[in-house]
Amino acid sequence: MFTGLVTDVGTVVAASGSERLRRLTIQSSYDPATIALGASIACSGPCLTAVAVEPTEGGCRFSVDAAAETLARTSVGTWSVGTRVNLERSLKVGDELGGHLVTGHVDGLGEIVACEPVTGGTGDPQWAPSDRFVIRAPAALARFIAEKGSICLDGTSLTVNSVDGDLFSVLLIPHTLAVTTWGERRAGDVLNLEVDLIARYAARLSESRDTLGAPRTS
Asked: Which of 33, 160, 184, 208 has the most C-beta neighbours closer than 10 Å?
């Protein structure tokens, strides 16, 4: 389980395999002593298992394997040497839940259709502009996305600003743009998308009630 709060940006330093199984090695600033073999690490959204860890100057390199299901549903299959990825360690009991509950189980790919700077209109140079991204969700996932609800995009917990059919928008503040890969994102890029866990189960319960009929009250 994760929160969608990125704690490091790693870089892919090796990639090999096929569409059935792909191994990626990622350079990170994480302390290698804190990563056990088998540990779960969210890598730009997908929860992947560390299968090898080695110390390096300033951090470590850890390897993960992505199987066919992950490669089919996410952008992992397109990653190559030099690709930067948002990283988050799994949540520990007692940790602050600063974002929202994220499973690391990506539902599909969203596409950025527009990006525009947003300023506060104050004229004060200390207020750097934020960026508003408009994203198209897969049709099957659009019903899970609600205005002011939470969504996880490339491993980042964000608040949905607006919804219009299969399009929705999110606002990225300067801090988030600086400490994640969002500062590199442009129209046409695809993003790993995970809908809110609560929205998913609420919709499923509603579907079950419609299918089975409302329970008798007498």
From this structure: 160
